[in-house]
User: Fold this.
Amino acid sequence: MSGLGDAKLTTLLSTFDAPTLRAFRQWLRSPWCNSNKNLLPLIEALERYHPGFDQMRLTREHLFKKVLPKGKYSDRRMNNLMSEGFKAAERFLVFHQFAANTTQQQQMLLGILRGRHLDQWFFKSVEQEMEALQQQSVMSWEDRLMLFQLQRAVYHHPTRSPRMKAGDQTIVRMSEQLDLVYLLEKAVIIEEKRSRALLLQDENHDLETETSRWLSASEGVTHPAIGLYRTRFAADQEPDLPMHMEMRAAFVEQFSRLSGREQKLHLLYLINDAKRLIRHGQLDITALLPLYKIGLETNLLLHEGQLTRNTYTSIVMASNTKGEFDFSHQFIASYSRFVDEAIREDCERWARAHTTYWSRQLNECLALLVKKEFNTPHFQLIGRVLRAQAYFDLYLEDHSYRDYLFSYLDSYERWLYRKKEYSDSFKMAFLNFVQKCRQLLDCYEAPDFEKAQIEGLLDDTVNIQALNWLRHKQREIGARRKVIN
Assistant:
């Protein structure tokens, strides 16, 4: 007997939620949508095993008997039935999506009216659609493209020639909309190429020429998003700190005038810029928090209803470093459910441990970390970093923790060397963290402490984990030794 868990139909049905599956059954009941009387019993039989479709319980023979109890089983008939079911499910999804998209419906209706020469209805519908679009306070890229298409349909209609009327502005408005559509989408592509060039060594794009052409084409165009891109592209290199702060202020000022997509794009641009400046030591991690708060308040940080692991951990780190522990607790309670289920437990436990660490509950932090090993490699790595930080701070408060700290740094280092699944360059960031911890401790314990020695300790740092924390400890140790001396 063969299972059905990996069949195309069951694979597709596993993506249906309960309301969609009910709608599919209802759709199959309509003779206009379905002429195969066996498909409804097939889906009803499969529904019992939705969404996992357990292959141990669900076999082809068992399913065939449920759908055709008096029929003689054959692989060919079963394959045909499953194939028909799959095709029906595909048609339903197209119908289901189309039924929810009024813009596509209206576009198709206008084409039908024009094709049937119902010109009076066609022009009336076009005018209503254009008026509705133009009354929007903020138009998306798709809205502008739709407006251009409507203007073009009117301008080039075979029974009407507005282009021959003196003073008609349709062609001017068409040109303006097309310029905006081009400039907005081209800017996204240019910025993506700029990002790829920084991350990928083999990416060779003539960005100077493309950017120059874009800036020339954007001259005289007034649009909030175009203005933000113009500022971004004005420099030959990635934004420095003054330019970043200028763009951040402009973004906040223009935020309400941007479409949802533009808001998300420019927010992510600023977050990525800030992270780069943080890595270079020009900005503190706490500077990310206002941007993250904007993203949370507007749901712009959620991608298809989920929060990425990196965004989740970055928000917790920024909030705790700034000392906003009430916000951290609220964030953990409200947003942990938005991270992928496979890492949710690790995310939440790490976040609570990180919050207890920064609120100086060091033993509670360690209790959360040693409770059990994290399930996912990423949290195994950063969980060990946090554990080292907790031992480090306990030692600064109580020197009896010295052996615990140095022993743990040694064991962490050995653990990193054993991990063959990570590349050497990736592990180096964590090995450098351990090395700098030891160097800070050497400065702290040195009988002939020199301020210049600890001040220059992190000047040569590249590819290092927890640089922001190390800078905090650098300042703290300098202050402690000053008091001691």
Notes: Residues 195 and 211 are 14 Å apart (CA to CA). The chain is about 70% helix and 0% strand. The chain has a mean pLDDT of 89. Residues 103-168 form one domain.
